[in-house]
Structure formats: C-alpha cells, structure tokens
Fold this sequence. Notes:
The protein is mainly alpha-helical. The chain has 32 helices and 4 strands. Strands 1-2-4-3 form a 4-stranded mixed beta sheet. Helix 30 links the parallel strand 1 and strand 2. It is extended, with a radius of gyration of 39 Å.
Amino acid sequence: TARAGRAGDARRAGRAARRAEARGALADDLGAEDVLNAMESFCEEEESTRATPKTGGRARRDDVFRGTMDDDAFERLDKQKASRREKRTAVRAVREEAASGGARGGTDARLSFLYEEGVNVNDAGAVTKCNDVLRRCASMEEVLGLVKEMRDAGVEPVESTYVAVMLVCQNVGSPERAVQVYDAMTEAQVRMTGRTFHLAIELALKAEMFKDALRIKDDMRYVGLPVSSKLYVTLLRALADNDMGKRKGPQERLIRTCRLFEEMLNEDVDPAPAAYHTLIVAAHRANQHDLAVRTFDELIEEGITPARQTYETALDSMARSGLLAQALEVFVQMKSNGLMPRKVTYNTLLSACVNAPQPRVEAAFEIFEEMQTKGNVTPDRSTYSLLIDAACKAGKPEMAFDAFSHMRDSGIEIQVGTLNRLIHAAGLSAKEDSTSVQATLELYDAMKKLGVEPDVITYGSLIATCAKARDAATAIKVYEEMRAAGVEPNRILFNVLINALGRANRSEEAMEYFRVMQKQSEVNSSLTPNRETYTTVFDAFIGGGGAELAMAKQSLESGDGASFVHSAQVAKLREIYAQGVEHGVYEDLSVVPSTREAESESCTINMNQLSRTEATVATLVLLERMSTLSSDQVPSAMFIYAGKVKPGKNGAQRRLLAIETVLRAANVKFEIGEVGSAELIAVKGKHCRAWIEKNAGTFV
C-alpha cells in the first residue's frame, strides 16, 4: 500500500509538472514550431506493433508521398516519436488513475468531459465533442492549448480534428498555419478525403503559398484521389495571376500555367471554359498572342460558348497580331451569341485595322460608321486616334484629317497626342511634296495658338519631315526652338536630326550633334547612342546613295575604286565604329582574325545581326585589321557569315551584297557559297596574304 501511495504521489507530481509546462507554452509567442509540436503525429499508435524489418520500427504507408527525405531525417523523426511514446505512456497512466477516482486532470473546463468516470476519450462521441470545442476557438494560442491538453489526455485525433484546427487557422486569419497542420496530418499518416485536400489547397492559396498548393495537389493525385476540373481552374488562375519563386514575370507565369493545363489534359480532365479563358489571359499578358488565338480556336472547336471577357481578350490578341479577317469573324460570332459590342470591342477592331500587314483604313472607317449607327456607341479619343493611325499607316493623310474633323465636331478636347499624329500624317509625302514641311509647320503654329504645349514627339515629327525633304536648315531651326522652349531631346529625336543632316550631305554637322548626344548621355543614360544612332551616323558619312554610290563617285574622281577603302571618309567611319565597340554596341573585329578553329586554322566573322550599312562599315574595319597581319597570323581561310535566307525577307542578301561590294572595291579575291540556307563569303589564306602584301601600311 505504501508503494502504491508513493506511485500515486509521483503520478500526481508528474501531472502537475505537465500542467505547468502547458501553461508556460501558452504564454510564449506561437510560431510554426508550436503548430508542429502540437499537431505532428500526436495520434500515433505504438510503433512496435507496426514495425517491419525493412523500416526498423519506422512505419510507412505506401500511399503517402514522402518527398525526398534522407535517412537522417527519418532518424530524427524516430527519436521524436520515441519521446512522444514515453509521454503518452505517462498520459495513459494519468488517465487510468483518473478513471479509478483520482483528481481530475483537465486545465480547461470545456474539456472536463474527458476526465469523467468511465469516459473513453477515443470514443467517436468524445472526439466529436473535442472537435466542436476546437472549432469555437478564437485564436491560435487557444486552439494549440486545447490540442496539447487533448494530447496529454490521450485523445487520438482523426481527420475531422485536424480539419477543425485548419478551420480555426482560416477564421483567425492564419492560413499559412493550416499548411503546417496539413503537413503534421500527413506525417501522422491520417487518411484524408478529397474535401480535406481541397481545404488545404484553398488555405495555401489564400496564404500565397503557391508551391505548397501544387504540392498538396500532387499528394492528392498520389493517393489516387481525382483532381476536379474546378480545382484545376482555381490553381490555373493562381499561377496565371501570381509570381512564384525566383523566376518572375508574365512569361514565367505563362509557362507554369501551360504546364498545369497540359497536366489537366493528360489526366483526361475536360477543361472548363474558365480554364481556357485563364490560359488565353496568361498568353495575352505575356504577349504570346499566337498562343492566345490558338487556345481560343480550341475552345470554339470544343463547342464551348465563350464569355464576353474571353471574346474580348482573344480579339485583342488578334488585333495585336494584325489578324483582321479572323477578328472580324469572331466579332460576328460574338454578336450572334447575343453579346452586343462595347466601345472597347470596336476600338479593338480598329486596332486590328492599324496592325494588319496591309493597313485597312477603309475597313476602319466602316467599323467607325457601324459603331455609331448600329452599335449606338459614342466614339472616344482612342477611337479617333486609331482612325488617324490607320490612315497614316496606309499613307492616306487626307483620311487622317477627315478623322480629325469628326473628332473636332464631336466636342472631344484636342490634346497633344492627336495633333502629333496629324503632324506625322502631314509629313508622310515630304519626299515627293515640297510643301509638306510648310504644312507641318502650320499645324505646329496652330497647336500653339490652341494653347497645346508641344512635346518632344511634336518636335521629332517636325524634324522627321525635314529629313524626308532634305531640309537641314529647318531641322536645325526646329531643334533650337525646342531647346529654347525647355523641352529635353530624347534618343529618337537626336537620331532623326542626325538623319536630316546626313540626307542633306552635311555630315560634319551631323557628327557635331552626335558628339552633343554623347556628351549629354554622360548625365542622362537614356541618350546613350544605340545601333540605330550609329547606323544613322554611318549613313550620314557614306551618303544617301549608300556605299555603292560613294565608291562609284570615288572611282570616277580617282580612277581607282580601291581609293575609297583608303580614304579619310572611311577612316572617319572606322573611328565611329571603334567608339561603338568601346560602348559595347559592336563586336571588336580587331581580335576576330586571331581567333582560329582548332582543326582548320580558319576564322569566322559573324555579320548576320548587322544591317546593310553596318555590314559595309564592319567590312571596311575588317580590311584595315587584315592589313596589319603578319604572314604567320593569316588564317587558312576567312569566312564571313551573312545570315540565312528566309522567305519574304532579304536581309541576308542585302548584307551579302554590301560585303561583296566592299571586297570587290578593295580588290580582294573571294568566293560566295551556301551552306544549307546560309550565305557565306570565303577568302582563302593565300588571297589574304596577296592582298596584305599590296595594302600593308596604306590605310589612313
């Protein structure tokens, strides 16, 4: 009896210590570790009854995905489980003592029924009562305290217990902890229904834990539960609307959305209309308009009637791709399905007219008329701007001014963007019509009288008109007036100004403004010259007729075409190219001849990314470099790659012609060949040596 009394005292002392520990835990700040400690595997059965030789006391269920956990992780889990078994043994002893008439062990009155005589704490009714108590908790501290007491009382939680805790996480605004509860539930090897998986995914998405949501979805598939079309739509929307991980942006979001969409198809889940719509939107945001259009076509082939937003998103992708005919067909379908076009719908069709390969200004005005008569839709500023753009792209300035007249009659406020479009339209025919410059200047004066402040685009359009008309004097005057008005130039304006001076054969003045641009770029990086700038400067020095005409003139004056290659004019081009190399715009061709292929000892110069003018200058630079090579530095052969010939595009042929023209003028022997569809010029080593012997030291 004395021994039994001492044992009872020990049990009571242990129970008091556990109560104190529970109260202390509630007082501390609760984090992820608290959730895991409270929930993880606190319903385990005695592991010894389930051990197998293969697992060594560590039971595993084959239908639970365990990821890539290493052996060390399993060992740590074994130690944790062993510690919990010891605690549960003590808890059972306390429960048995309480059942035999000992003092009640509960610390919360709501769980007092667990300590009533004859109560089986793992009876379905008792567990249900515990779950009801948990659901009414108003904080995570409260629910975790109750969970610890349930654990100490020997309650073995079931799926609904974990769900109750997850619902508390949802109600108190801590959805991220619901994911931790799910992980504890998985570790405890509790079988889950589809509803529990759905709840876990919903809360993971609410917590913006998108990777975890996908992981839970994969767990759901692993245990053989089907993923519904509705759940796929929910996940697709999350991936399309949110970044995940280090790879960010609409392109990466589209990639992830496409992968999930493909998975859905591979699982033989019929995509819902919302799934197609989500993929279309993701493709549209990523500027993958071909994919958006193809997905829309698949939706129609499946016999699905699109919603308005799907129609309009697909229409916009078609418009941006210039697919006017297809956009008009979809427009008709949309109306036949009872969806009346809105202002944005008509404006999207006008955009398709603008972006079509052959701008359809007549079709644009027909859409404009239907918009007002049949659609009963009032045009806005964007409508008229698109009409003007369509007229400008079609080269019909008179129709642009018609659109402007309609806009003015409608009472819409005239803004600088609209007047800039008109100035651009007035200057379209400046090459053929000498009055175009005066017409744009009159519009410029009218703009100022209306109280509309010109911007840098205004001045750029005026100077561009002067460039077409080869009117350098007016171009400089406009530039000076812009500076006096306090408007800062941008890179495009400098480019058109240099072009205007070059087309008027005022290359030295063009070079002066190029230097001004370089100087200003030291404090304004947006003015840093780009490839377009350098090409414009090259054209200014070569002349409006191109390298061929410049060489022909030089040949007539000197009687020798090769003199152009050695001229001071070409030396200036090489100097400008060197500046481009210094600023990372061009490749340094001075080192290319020294870069050999291991087996053939040949070298390859790649010019397939250059324009015709850039290829001309690059070849001139290459010749100067060749003239400095010693006999042992000459490669066995030098191949100049001009690019691949593509149907409908003649860029490679134009580059090839430019390179060929320079080499012929320099009297370099070469051969032209094709490798597949690639255009190549080959200069043999012996021909390089022969040319070097004649031209070494002759360059300025």
